Amino acid sequence: MRYINTLHEGETIRNIYLCKSKRSAETRNGKPYDTLNLQDKTGMLDGKIWDPNSQGVADYDEMDFVEVFGDVISYNGNLQLNIRQLRVAEEGEYNPADYMPTSENSVDVMYNELLSYVKQIENPYLRQAVEYYFVKDEAFIKKFKAHSAAKSIHHGFSGGLLEHTLSIVKMCEFYVHSYSIFNKDLLYAAALYHDIGKTKELSAFPENDYTDGGQLLGHIVIGVEMVSDAVRSIPGFPETLANELKHCIVAHHGELEYGSPKKPALAEALALYHADCTDARFQTLKELFKDKQTNDWLGYNRLFESNLRKTSI
């Protein structure tokens, strides 16, 4: 097995990867070619088949495990595989776990740490609302532990949703200890809940793609619906408190153009927005810089609206 993060320009390889996506197009001269996104647990690799009708290229589709033979080149600063041969691999020729990107941290350790914050919530209504999923719902817990936080931008790996949520709660803990304006219980509950809808917005690995519900509603609306389910199960849950918790979820993207139906109107909602934005951006940087051995400029990045590079030391 040759993992993607070990490949180097100039190599010729034969290996099995997951074909995460494919797109057929034509060159300016009208010749057909295929673009593939190849995946293993270490990352993604752009693949090109310049002659998809050749005898060496078998019929294949997205989400097939494919054995590819080709040359590793560098294009626009990124590695690319020019594929000369391709066949669909058979079961037993590959281990699916090799193709699922996973968190570098222990899922069980992270989840136990997350539960330590659940235990710090003193308000009985908010505590029960959080426990509804994170303590009592075994199916949800299993899904949450294995889920990604995004399709590709940040934390797009198994365990990514848990890792991201834990980071947000830790930042909120800092806010609570640094500024007296926050209600700890509401902020912790909102942090735990903020991306809960992603367990339904995105499908499980290896697909890790948008579901119909994800496309139609998005994780913010789904998350509010899930909060409502929990709240309805708790007798006497104060309506105002329920709306404040929902508002934090609704507003956690901060701006209308970023998908939030409402801008933050509570201190806790504003804190959650900044924590979410901070972790998402710095994790994105971490993934951009991963495996970069030099401090070369990476090129213009649309998210950061800037050309980026690592520091010289």
Describe the structure.
This protein is of the alpha+beta class and 313 residues long. It folds into 2 domains: 4-98, Nucleic acid-binding proteins (OB fold (Dihydrolipoamide Acetyltransferase, E2P)); 100-289. Helix content is 38%, strand content 18%. The protein has 10 helices and 7 strands. It has helices at 107-118, 124-134, 138-146, 160-178, 184-193, 198-201, 212-216, 218-232, 239-250, 267-289, and strands at 12-26, 32-40, 43-49, 65-75, 78-88, 300-301, 306-307. The strands form 2 sheets. Strands 1-2-3-5-4 form a 5-stranded mixed beta barrel. Strand 2 (32-40) and strand 3 form a beta hairpin. Helix 4 runs antiparallel to helix 5 and helix 5 (184-193) packs across helix 9. The longest helix is centred in the last third of the chain and has 23 residues, at 267-289. It is elongated and about 70 Å long. The mean pLDDT is 91.
